[in-house]
Amino acid sequence: MTDTEPALVALDWGTSGQRAWLLGTGGRVLDGRRSKRGLLAVTEGIDPGDPAARAAAYETAFRQACGDWLTAHPGLPAIACGMVGSAQGWTDTGYRAVPSTLDFTGLVPVPHRDGVLHLVPGLRIPSGDRPGDVLRGEETQLAGMLDVLTGPCTVVLPGTHTKWVRVEGDTVTGFATSMSGELHGLLTKHGIFARTAAEPVRDDAAFERGLAAGRRSRGLAAELFGARPLVLDGALAPASLPDYLSGVLLADEVAHQLSTSDTERVVLCGTADLCRRYAAALADRGVAAVVLTEETTVRGLWRIATAAGLVHHTPERTPQP
Amino acid sequence: MTDTEPALVALDWGTSGQRAWLLGTGGRVLDGRRSKRGLLAVTEGIDPGDPAARAAAYETAFRQACGDWLTAHPGLPAIACGMVGSAQGWTDTGYRAVPSTLDFTGLVPVPHRDGVLHLVPGLRIPSGDRPGDVLRGEETQLAGMLDVLTGPCTVVLPGTHTKWVRVEGDTVTGFATSMSGELHGLLTKHGIFARTAAEPVRDDAAFERGLAAGRRSRGLAAELFGARPLVLDGALAPASLPDYLSGVLLADEVAHQLSTSDTERVVLCGTADLCRRYAAALADRGVAAVVLTEETTVRGLWRIATAAGLVHHTPERTPQP
């Protein structure tokens, strides 16, 4: 058996998009695809009260993504993480309660025409004494980072809904979600700042000024509005508004999340642009984060599939995504 | 001269709407109208780089609002406050720097076919050592409240962009703007919570729970997201989301604004619904606010027109808006 022999079909199937990989023995990526067939596109026009119609739509999208791989290699196991396992997904996998190990074994099988797709459940903190929270997809990204996480640490996964995850060994002990990314999108696309017509340009100085403003204690809703008088005074170019607002949001987020974190070690994992911003906001509070900008979800899918017995572990090889 | 004799045309001309009143001697409202001819509607389709075209559009809208009053009573003075005096308005009045008395005399005249419309300038804190800020229209609302403001106080004017104004005697000494209202609109109209399809219903308990969540120190962007796991857990009805988010936003706003205020006396002036919410958020912090839900802008327009000599003061009469 060589590592170019197909061993697993793996999908990261989120809200707005979908990525599919054909992995060889040992986790090597043999082929990869990306499409916009996320939850929103798949369920468009489908009656939310008709699970059968929704399942059919997901199966069609699944075959579009990787039907040729399954036909060429009958019996190939398949795994998927992300919103495909949500209440609006193919099947609702539910959540595993925190604390939870990242080496999952409880995958949720979804039968389809050519076999079974195994879905990775999300993680959940039940609402109660402490605030509840949920994540889905990030558990797999985290599983793909386990080899590089040492000791207790806080992993920051920046995005529309940034996750601040507390990891000890191979276990998630807690997490919190901050929707700064969504707020930034809403403010720059739909609000009063969206009316300030100007093509955004990158302005690191504006971002730094936003960080400084966000450090003040006038409250997020006041500091965000503070961009407006700056523009009216000619002290901030309209094209620099997005970077300024990003600074205000991240300074506020980082200040609050660090204050509730009891670890000194912070690991950032995400796109280069978001990691740069969060690293600057963390540095502003005296925290030097370890930054990983590599893809870890495919590695996590391989690891979870291995732990669940879908593929055979080959200990002599390190996964090579 | 009786108080049914027309003495002034007064307009509150904002971003999304316009109100016009015909006032008699002493400030009595003889007639009133309301239209959607605000800045957005008036300037729609007008080239922003063509001030003459914009002025013509404003003059047309002005005549639609009160041309009959001006024709019936030639020479009647006219005054307007609000965004009509902004950079996208009829004429940019600029701003008066804070500290500033609320008994204005420096109105900005705009000639039109039948006379002159006098515009009330806004107030501005220049960006510098302390954060800059602007307001426009609220200065007139404040002028209309002067008779009931005693001693130093903080006046809260709730809205899309809530103003927290520090008033001493007849002078505004400082203010801050919080865009909680805009954030609430963006979150419930365009964001992830907007996808939770449910007709909103009033839920005071959900608002109170939002207040309690907003009091915690996890940061606004995290506490707002906290509504999502509550809905997923079945602990919050989707129809109650708007009230819950309102509570989270107002608790955060009030906590921060009170901490930077050095007055104990807080006066709230706005719509009954917003005053009720802010009063609850303030009570939650131990502050009993004085609440005014009456219309004060028309009273302010009369007061400013009197101070500016547009109309003759009749000291024996209290304005009766």
UniProtKB/TrEMBL annotation, chains A, B:
<dbReference type="InterPro" id="IPR042257">
    <property type="entry name" value="DGOK_C"/>
</dbReference>
<protein>
    <submittedName>
        <fullName>2-keto-3-deoxy-galactonokinase</fullName>
    </submittedName>
</protein>
<dbReference type="InterPro" id="IPR007729">
    <property type="entry name" value="DGOK"/>
</dbReference>
<dbReference type="InterPro" id="IPR042258">
    <property type="entry name" value="DGOK_N"/>
</dbReference>
<dbReference type="Pfam" id="PF05035">
    <property type="entry name" value="DGOK"/>
</dbReference>
<dbReference type="GO" id="GO:0034194">
    <property type="term" value="P:D-galactonate catabolic process"/>
</dbReference>
<keyword id="KW-0418">Kinase</keyword>
<keyword id="KW-0808">Transferase</keyword>
<dbReference type="GO" id="GO:0008671">
    <property type="term" value="F:2-dehydro-3-deoxygalactonokinase activity"/>
</dbReference>
